[in-house]
């Protein structure tokens, strides 16, 4: 036991004395969460728009005010003719143009059908779709407020409600994703690199010719990173909840347990990688290629799995982060308990056992 | 019983043989040197003996334990210092030593007497990171780490490679002192001049043992006549001598060339005459006693080992 404690102590020395390791360990999660939370958001705020008001009436004024008061839009310029619209789009300084036709108010007041034209710059298609949706919703809202009882005949009124995330906040998606990514990266990358480093410096040889068993060596490598990764996980959760205002509707205990499970899985993968490679560099590349890229692209973190081609959807089933992200979302946002999350949890447990088993099988008491 | 017994051990990496059919035994308390150039198979043999590699053929025992079957017990008993620096460069001198002591279930205090002489030189730097030590200091620390658990047999794989001449001498003085306390030591080196400091040596070349004997005795195997030759133009001299009909071999050893002749009838006068014909000046020729390196060179070029 003394041996084991000495080994763990040594590992902590390695980690705490290497600035690069420390930076990756604690700088990375912070940077990722803040970056994804604030910079890389797909919410739209203060989009610049232009208004062409050919009517210049009470209603067109009020709708314009309502649009600008929403916080989504910011008036860039008032246009005077249809020609100006094209010019403004070409300049690229507006994302959306709102056109009120002449006679807008007159038609509206007399209960006749009336129109507003929305033109969006679709060179950024997602922004264009969001902006027209926002604007449509605001305008519809305006008419509903004006005549709450008027049900236009033969109109199907579609009312959608965004459940769990009514404001469609990006942080709800990014925080679980970043958590999966950072934990995988830190745990798997770090463990695989540190074992490869011992192999490179030749210290592994000396350790092997010692009473330490391979199991003790591996466990000694895992324990410090398990602890540090867990601290990391807590930091990310805290940042998500307190800074990015992601709700924590479910059980914190369950969330932390699932986080530990995921860290354990990442560490198993790290050990597995290290049992296959000889140098730190290869270990690093293997970890990045095998873990980071699939996690970003195939876990549903950035691109929805449902819209992927079938083969990629199938591959996404072996990406551990996919399950972890759905668990974190389930607990934090939906407030789901284990009875709803046992399936992905079981998959994570299964994967951990699989990789641990493989690594233990690859364990060598000798070189080569 | 001998401390190390190697019987017909062979090991190949894929198709390439590293150690072929080596048999060797080291007596308890011996300081035994394994001498040979890089790639002779010394390191492979070491790794087999310290249980890091499995031999393809043959068997070996260290301190009475089979290196394959009893590897667990053996790992408590051997001290191993691999060829390259294998300590933690980011740990301090003291932390390295304490770590290895704990790993082997002991403490620095308990076995301090074993390393006192060596470690006392390192103590002023005990808080320095091991990576910042000089080459000689690193080796001393590595030796301390290999000794701290009181091993029965010590394996040092090229401990002096890359270490300056003064530190090398110091290192061998230390080995000698350890040996006087009865520690069986197997040490490998590519430096012939270190061979004379061992009790017995084995020449190793391309995976085979060429000869095993005491350093002095081994030079007696050199049966041919050996001359030291010097002249003004060393480069031309070696060229001419290698082409001479009486020459068996000719190697440069510092300022003299060591010339082995084919027949013992070849005299200094004959060689002198040959060189004067070739217009060499300041010629100096005299018969010399073969050294270990001469013997090794001779054995190396022989088709059949003399052992």
From TrEMBL, chain A:
It is found in: Cell membrane. Residues 139-366 form the ABC transmembrane type-2 domain. The chain crosses the membrane at residues 21-40, 171-190, 225-246, 252-274, 281-303, 340-360. Its main location: membrane. One of its GO terms (cellular component) is ATP-binding cassette (ABC) transporter complex. The keyword Membrane applies. InterPro entries: ABC-2_transporter_component, ABC2_TM, ABC2_TM_bact-type, ABC_2_transport. Keywords: Cell membrane, Membrane, Transmembrane, Transmembrane helix, Transport. Pfam families: ABC2_membrane_3. GO terms for molecular function: ABC-type transporter activity. It is a multi-pass membrane protein. PROSITE patterns: ABC_TM2. Belongs to the ABC-2 integral membrane protein family. This is Transport permease protein.
TrEMBL record, chain B:
The keyword ATP-binding applies. InterPro entries: AAA+_ATPase, ABC_transporter-like_ATP-bd, ABC_transporter-like_CS, ABC_transporter_ATP-binding, P-loop_NTPase. It holds the Pfam family ABC_tran. SMART domains: AAA (SM00382). SUPFAM superfamilies: P-loop containing nucleoside triphosphate hydrolases (SSF52540). GO terms for molecular function: ATP binding; ATP hydrolysis activity. It comes from the Bacteria. The keyword Nucleotide-binding applies. Residues 4-231 form the ABC transporter domain. Keywords: ATP-binding, Nodulation, Nucleotide-binding, Transport. PANTHER family: ABC TRANSPORTER ATP-BINDING PROTEIN, ABC TRANSPORTER ATP-BINDING PROTEIN NATA. Belongs to the ABC transporter superfamily. This is ATP-binding cassette domain-containing protein. It comes from Larkinella terrae.
């Amino acid at each position: 036991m003394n041996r084991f404690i000495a080994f763990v102590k040594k590992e902590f020395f390695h980690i705490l004395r290497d600035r690069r390791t420390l930076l990756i360990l604690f700088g990375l999660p912070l940077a990722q969460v803040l970056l994804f939370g604030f910079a890389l958001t797909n919410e739209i705020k203060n989009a610049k728009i232009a208004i062409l008001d050919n009517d210049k009436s009470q209603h067109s004024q009020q709708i314009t005010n309502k649009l600008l008061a929403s916080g989504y839009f910011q008036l860039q310029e008032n246009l005077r003719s249809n020609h100006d619209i094209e010019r403004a789009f070409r300049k690229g300084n507006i994302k959306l143009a709102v056109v009120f036709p002449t006679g807008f108010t007159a038609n509206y007041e007399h209960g006749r059908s009336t129109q507003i034209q929305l033109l969006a710059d679709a060179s950024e298609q997602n922004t264009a779709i969001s902006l027209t949706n926002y604007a449509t919703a605001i305008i519809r809202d305006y008419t509903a407020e004006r005549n709450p009882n008027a049900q236009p005949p033969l109109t199907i009124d579609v009312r959608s409600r965004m459940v769990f995330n009514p404001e469609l906040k990006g942080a709800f998606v990014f925080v679980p994703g970043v958590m999966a990514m950072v934990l995988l990266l830190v745990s798997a990358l770090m463990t695989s690199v540190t074992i490869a480093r011992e192999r490179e410096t030749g210290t592994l040889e000396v350790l092997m010719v010692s009473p330490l068993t391979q199991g003790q060596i591996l466990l000694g490598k895992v324990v410090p990173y398990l602890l540090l990764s867990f601290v990391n996980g807590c930091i990310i959760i805290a940042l998500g909840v307190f800074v990015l205002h992601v709700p924590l509707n479910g059980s914190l205990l369950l969330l932390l347990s699932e986080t530990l499970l995921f860290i354990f899985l990442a560490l198993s993968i790290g050990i597995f990688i290290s049992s296959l490679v000889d140098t730190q560099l290869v270990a690093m590349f293997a970890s990045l290629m095998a873990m980071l890229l699939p996690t970003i692209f195939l876990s549903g973190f950035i691109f929805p799995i449902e819209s992927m081609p079938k083969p990629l959807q199938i591959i996404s089933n072996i990406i551990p982060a996919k399950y972890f992200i759905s668990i974190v979302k389930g607990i934090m946002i939906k407030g789901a308990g284990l009875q709803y999350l046992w399936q992905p949890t079981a998959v994570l447990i299964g994967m951990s056992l699989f990789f641990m088993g493989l690594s233990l099988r690859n364990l060598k008491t000798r070189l080569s | 019983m001998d401390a190390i017994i190697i019987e017909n051990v062979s090991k190949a990496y894929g198709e390439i043989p590293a150690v072929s059919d080596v048999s060797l035994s080291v007596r308890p308390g011996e300081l035994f040197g394994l001498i040979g150039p890089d790639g002779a198979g010394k390191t492979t043999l070491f790794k087999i003996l310290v249980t890091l590699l499995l031999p393809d053929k043959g068997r070996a025992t260290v301190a009475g334990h089979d290196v394959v079957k009893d590897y667990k017990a053996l790992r408590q008993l051997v001290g191993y210092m691999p060829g390259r620096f294998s300590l933690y460069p980011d740990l301090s001198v003291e932390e390295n030593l304490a770590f290895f002591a704990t790993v082997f279930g002991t403490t620095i205090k308990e076995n301090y007497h074993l390393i006192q002489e060596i470690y006392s030189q390192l103590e002023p730097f005990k808080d320095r990171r091991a990576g910042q030590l000089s080459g000689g200091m690193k080796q001393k620390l590595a030796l301390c780490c290999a000794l701290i658990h009181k091993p029965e047999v010590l394996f040092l794989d090229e401990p002096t490679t890359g270490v300056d001449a003064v530190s090398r001498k110091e290192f061998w003085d230390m080995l000698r002192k350890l040996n006087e306390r009865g520690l069986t030591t197997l040490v490998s080196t590519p430096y012939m001049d270190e061979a004379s400091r061992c009790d017995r040596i084995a020449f190793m070349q391309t995976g085979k043992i060429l000869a095993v004997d005491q350093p002095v005795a081994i030079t007696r195997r050199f049966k041919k006549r050996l001359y030291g030759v010097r002249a003004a133009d060393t480069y031309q001299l070696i060229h001419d001598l290698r082409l001479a009909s009486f020459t068996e071999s000719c190697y440069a050893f510092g300022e003299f060339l060591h010339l082995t002749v084919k027949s013992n009838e070849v005299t200094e006068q004959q060689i002198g005459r040959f060189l004067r014909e070739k217009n060499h000046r300041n010629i100096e020729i005299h018969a010399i006693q073969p050294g270990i390196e001469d013997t090794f060179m001779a054995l190396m070029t022989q088709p059949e080992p003399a052992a």
